[in-house]
Amino acid sequence: MKRRTVGRALAATLALGLGVALGGCSSSAGGGGVVASGNYSGPAVTISFWNGWTGGAAPVLVPKLIGQFNDSHKNIKVKNVPQEWAAISAKMPLAIKAGKGPDVAVAHGDDIATYAAQGLLLKSDSIVKALGYSASDFPKGLVSAATYKGSQYAIPWSVTPLGLFINKDVLTAAGLDPNLVPTDQPSYMDALAKLKAAGVQGEWVDGFVFTGTFEFETLVWQFGGQLFNDDVSKATFNSDAGVKALTHMVDIVKQGYSPPNVAQDGNINALVGSKTAFNWNGVWQTTNSALDKVNWTAAAVPQIGPEKAVWSSSTDWIFPANKGQDKNKTSAAATFVKWMNDNSSGWAATGELPAKNSVRNDPQLLQDHPNLKPFLDQLPYAHYETVSPGITNAVATITTAVNEAVLLKKSPKQALDDGVAKANQLLKQNASQYGG
Description:
Blueprint lengths: L1 H17 L26 E7 L6 H15 L3 E7 L2 H13 L6 E5 L3 H6 L7 H6 L16 E2 L2 E2 L2 E13 H6 L11 H13 L11 H14 L17 H15 L11 H7 L5 E5 L13 E4 L10 E9 L8 H16 L10 E2 L2 H4 L2 H6 L4 H6 L3 E2 L7 H16 L5 H23 L2
Parallel strand pairs: 1-2, 1-3, 9-11
Antiparallel strand pairs: 3-9, 4-5, 6-7, 6-8, 6-9, 6-10
């Protein structure tokens, strides 16, 4: 997951530099000639698939999933092209323009509008229809989040919500019931106070994207706020809800429930090392082998504010609009996407939840992966990435604000006001570059 953040930041930088180079591209590229059933029956083709899964997820992707697909589709061969997420962000725009990009790729939810605005993607409305998908086949809001200017540009693949990881032995040693999970603000703060009395700093709050930013965004939504206004022309994360959210995190530090200046990954490392009891982190940590030596469990994030909410990211299938793109390859790619979604229960082994409801709701998924239950239970109230061209640069100002506040360099209000001022400048630049 950390590689994704690097890729997003680089994509934001590249977007500014590529604006002129790609200015002649149209964002209204046509469909890809997909057969009605999603079962490609054309001539034999080899399609390239770009993705950033180079680590622990790679063995699940290849040979298990892609290998099975290739074995069962004699007229389609999928060539897996794994590379760092940052490399994809760097290479793909110019590769597509030159007709050398992938036939199918995976993008993060907050990158789709940027790619679409640059004319790098095929509209996928006809593909979605041909494959028989509708919004109800995926978590609420996920399909609409993959649209730009009224057109569909992606198909959901997986979701990765935040959760509360718990070291049960730390709770037991501090005299707390390890099976009594805090679910709201009073019970959570009471647990932190009792842990402190026993000499344990119960939650290590950091000022990094992983996972301080995700926690802050969760809390903003729980307090009824939004990060940006509806058309993403203004940042709003300095609202009363934002101040309450960041104040909650800062107070945990000020009251000694967290040490100051927590390093990147210091919180999950502290949980693994039995130095803390709670860690707000993503579902991907369920596959962290370091937790094998820990008596741990996971739960829904506590509801600190008046509303249920949790941050989640998404990954989505995209169909690049390569110069001279072969419609047979796009059609074959759509068949690959449908097969992968239909068989995505195996992807849960990587710590990502399948986006397709029918797969995710199959009881067999929890039988195979019981640790995923609290994350699955949160999806009805999950919030996904903000969708707007170039949005990653504006979102980065949220992390800066969180960092400045939890390091006690600025008050929550001042940090958020400064962040919003910078974000609004960037949003204006994005509107100018991408045409609003």
